[in-house]
Design brief:
The structure holds 2 protein chains of 2 kinds.
Chain A (H helix, E strand, L loop, with lengths): L12 H12 L11 E12 L4 E12 L5 E16 L9 E4 L6 E4 L6 E19 L4 E12 L2 E14 L4 E14 L5 E2 L10 E2 L3 E17 L2 E14 L7 E5 L22 E3 L5 E14 L5 E11 L4 E12 L4 E12 L9 E2 H9 L13 E13 L5 E13 L6 E13 L1
Parallel strand pairs in A: 14-20
Antiparallel strand pairs in A: 1-2, 1-23, 2-3, 3-6, 4-5, 6-7, 7-8, 8-9, 9-12, 10-11, 12-13, 13-16, 14-15, 16-17, 17-18, 18-19, 19-21, 21-22, 22-23
Chain B lengths: L5 E5 L2 E8 L2 E8 L3 H22 L7 H7 L4 E3 L2 H16 L26 H7 L9 E3 L2 E3 L9 H16 L7 E5 L2 E19 L2 E16 L4 E4 L2 E4 L2 E2 L4 E2 L6 E6 L2 H13 L4 H8 L2 E5 L2
Helix pairs in contact in B: 1-5, 5-6, 6-7
Classes of the chains: A mainly beta, B alpha+beta.
Chain lengths: 425, 292
């Protein structure tokens, strides 16, 4: 008798459990019972000439005998590099103060105004527990914390998942509450005031975010699963970015002088005002995903997301993945993502003195943050990985992102690299 | 294949009975109406009879018989049969050839009736060329068995029927449920059932374990053996030699998530002979061995 490999009596129960699920045509339990499934990953994100980030993540999840499940996640984000300070690209040099207000820096004509003091470490911790109320109803509840040197966030959520129609339909409901505290370096700047005047209050600001998620997952047939989610997000409180400014210009591309508007003179092209955003934001998002498994075990996933908010931003995201299943657990997964967004009602590339007067008089909103402007992103990438018979798995991903918008500040290209490893413990 | 089903009231629900695969079969349900219990019982029994009809080697009107009649020719098979063959293949691989669905031909010379009729070495040797899963050819939707070979899915069928029946029963009710086909069983409920484990017996009384969700299956039969010149020959045959496995337990009971899996772990353990317990310990499952 010829065997493919030399036989060693050893643990076969995992392979046998998977084979049994295949025989019965039921989904395999991905996680091994009574063990922690640990997923570790390291993400590197690097924008050309701008921000670089290193993000290690460790996730641990465990399914207990009573089918309750605990998920824990620790994320550390370490950011370095330069980020756009909100100002316009102008014909002449411009002068800014650093976020703390203690230093002054200049940007040359034609350059994207970047603040190079950008350095931050974020630590986030979350825990989610879900349990069966009865055969078809599962409850879930979780908490999360996130901390940065100028930001602290705490959140909690609770929800229900209801299986119907012989588990071919799942309806879910989730309510999330989050409370954020922002303590800007150097104090909270007075919105719409001239940056050189350094009008700041030594205090902190806060906001709360309420999220409601309604989900519908439908098994269409043996190979096709569809998911439709609606997310309502209500934020209220301080949403302004304390480090971002809007440039006041003469309308022909040259920054004005602060002193000409009655402000302090700190240098050339220093008429920069601190931005102001609304103190509430209502967002509606609709997400639709289809997953189709082909006869040869390849998987096609297509997702579409539409978001609209009362700041005037509408966005569309189209995300496509193809998982190409190769021999012996290897897989290749090409990925394409396209994102397009319209600008907020109060987005200004720059502002003229008369516009400023009007905005100031009515205490209106203004922001020059390119992330609130018109944007188009294209991401392409490839993931390669291997699932081992023991349930362990590793993968590596490389992606390129190209972003463009109405200003040079929005033109960003980035490389994303990630490696991940899953094991049971 | 149809038969009779009988439904009776119990203290906390219903007990349905029928006979399939030469075994008494039971369905227990809690907190459902009589009509639901009746529906579930009918569905479960119909599935047990269907699996028996389709895959029993004692019938001449099914795929197993047709395969033997094909006499070495390719034969078209359906998806369910293909999945069973794929499972048998996995088990053959995982056991290093010890579990082999073509080993049934050994029954022609081995009859475990408690007598001393041990076959001769020649008799066993002439059958060995007819055994070997690796000699079975498969391609999508088709199988070819060399002439003279036989296929026996008896080592999978009953446990498979239990798991299948549970899936179908779940289309009718979410209530607590216990299916027991001649000792191979699956429980699926919130409140545990008391499960008698024959291999736990002390003084002839079976021990009990509580089981809310999961399956228990037993392989082996302490009553089937041959005895010659003081040597006991177990009915567990190693398909690689054609001779009984020595030094192992008479029967093994295993608890696992699904009945098919539990039954196969018990069978694979028996095929390890004296190595049965180390094998079971390595699987990290609950098990009970009966040695004498």
């Amino acid at each position: 008798m010829q065997l493919k490999k030399r036989y060693q009596p050893g643990p076969v129960s995992t392979s046998l459990a998977l084979a049994t699920c295949a025989l019965l045509g039921v989904p395999a339990m991905a996680e091994e019972a009574d063990k922690w499934q640990v997923d570790g990953s390291m993400l590197l994100y690097s924008e050309t000439d701008r921000v670089s980030a290193i993000e290690p993540v460790i996730k641990a999840s465990r399914t207990f005998k009573n089918e309750s499940k605990l998920d824990l996640k620790l994320t550390v984000d370490s950011l370095t590099g330069s980020s756009h300070n909100g100002a316009a690209v102008t014909n002449g040099p411009q002068t800014f103060t650093s976020p703390s207000g203690n230093k002054v820096y200049q940007i040359n004509a034609g350059d994207v105004p970047l603040d190079d003091s950008f350095l931050d470490t974020r630590v986030a911790l979350s825990g989610q527990y879900s349990w069966l109320l009865n055969r078809t109803l599962r409850a879930t509840s979780g908490i999360n914390f996130s901390n940065e040197y100028d930001f602290f966030s705490v959140g909690a959520n609770a929800g229900l998942n209801w299986d119907l129609n012989q588990r071919n339909t799942t309806l879910s409901f989730l309510l999330g509450l989050e409370s954020d505290t922002i303590e800007p370096v150097g104090g909270v700047p007075e919105a719409l005031s001239l940056q050189p005047d350094q009008l700041r209050t030594d205090s902190s600001e806060s906001r709360t975010v309420t999220d409601v998620l309604l989900g519908w997952t439908q098994v269409m047939n043996r190979r096709w699963i569809m998911q439709l989610n609606y997310n309502l997000s209500l934020a209220s409180g301080y949403m302004t970015d304390p480090y971002k400014v809007v440039t006041l210009t003469d309308g022909a591309g040259t920054a004005l002088e602060s002193e000409s508007l009655g402000g302090v003179d700190i240098g050339i092209g220093d008429a920069q005002i601190f931005e102001q955003r609304p103190d509430s934001r209502t967002r509606h998002a609709l997400y639709w995903e289809n997953r189709y498994s082909r006869e040869n075990d390849d998987v096609i996933a297509i997702g579409y997301r539409f978001m609209t908010d009362d700041w005037g931003i509408n966005s569309h995201t189209l995300d496509m993945k193809y998982r190409w299943q190769l021999d012996r657990g290897w897989f290749l997964q090409p990925h394409v993502r396209y994102y397009i967004q319209s600008e907020a009602d109060f987005w200004y590339e720059s502002m003229t003195a008369p516009e400023y007067t009007t905005v100031l008089a009515s205490n209106d909103y203004a922001s020059g943050d390119y992330r609130l402007g018109k944007l188009t992103d294209l991401t392409v990438g490839l993931k390669v990985g291997r699932e081992l018979p023991s349930g362990r798995k590793w993968d590596a991903r490389l992606e390129f992102m190209q972003q463009s918008g109405d200003t040079d500040a929005a033109d960003v290209s980035a490389v994303i690299g990630q490696v991940g490893y899953r094991f049971y413990w | 294949m149809a038969g009779e089903t009988r439904l009776t009231r119990t203290s906390d629900g219903w007990l349905g009975r029928f006979t399939a695969m030469a075994s008494p079969c039971e369905v227990q349900l809690r907190d459902v109406s009589r009509s639901t219990a009746e529906q579930v019982l009918k569905r479960v029994a119909a599935e047990a009879w269907r699996v028996e009809q389709r895959f029993s080697r004692y019938r001449d009107d099914n795929i197993v018989a047709a395969l033997q009649r094909a006499n070495g020719e390719w034969l078209a098979v359906d998806e369910e049969f293909e999945r069973l063959l794929a499972y048998a293949d996995t088990c053959w691989q995982l056991s290093g050839g010890r579990f082999d669905v073509t080993s049934g031909v050994l029954r022609r010379v081995w009859r475990f009736d408690g007598s001393d009729r041990v076959p001769s070495a020649d008799q066993v040797a002439t059958l060995l060329p007819l055994i070997g899963w690796d000699r079975v050819e498969r391609r999508p939707g088709q199988i070819r068995l060399p002439a003279g070979m036989e296929l026996d899915l008896g080592g999978i069928g009953k446990e498979y029927a239990v798991d299948r029946a549970l899936l179908l029963a779940r289309e009718h009710t979410d209530a607590d449920l216990l299916l027991n086909f001649g000792g191979d069983l699956v429980a699926d409920g919130k409140t545990p059932w008391q499960i008698g484990i024959e291999n736990l017996q002390q003084n002839g009384v079976a021990g009990q374990i509580p089981l809310a969700r999961g399956a228990v299956a037993t392989s082996g039969d302490s009553r089937r053996f041959l005895l010659r010149d003081g040597k006991r020959y177990s009915h567990i045959l190693d398909p690689r030699t054609g001779w009984p496995v020595q030094g192992g337990p008479h029967s093994v009971t295993v608890a696992a998530a699904r009945c098919t899996e539990a039954g196969m772990l018990a069978t694979l353990a028996l095929l390890q002979g004296a190595g049965a317990e180390p094998f079971l310990r390595a699987q990290g499952v609950r098990y009970w061995c009966l040695w004498e």
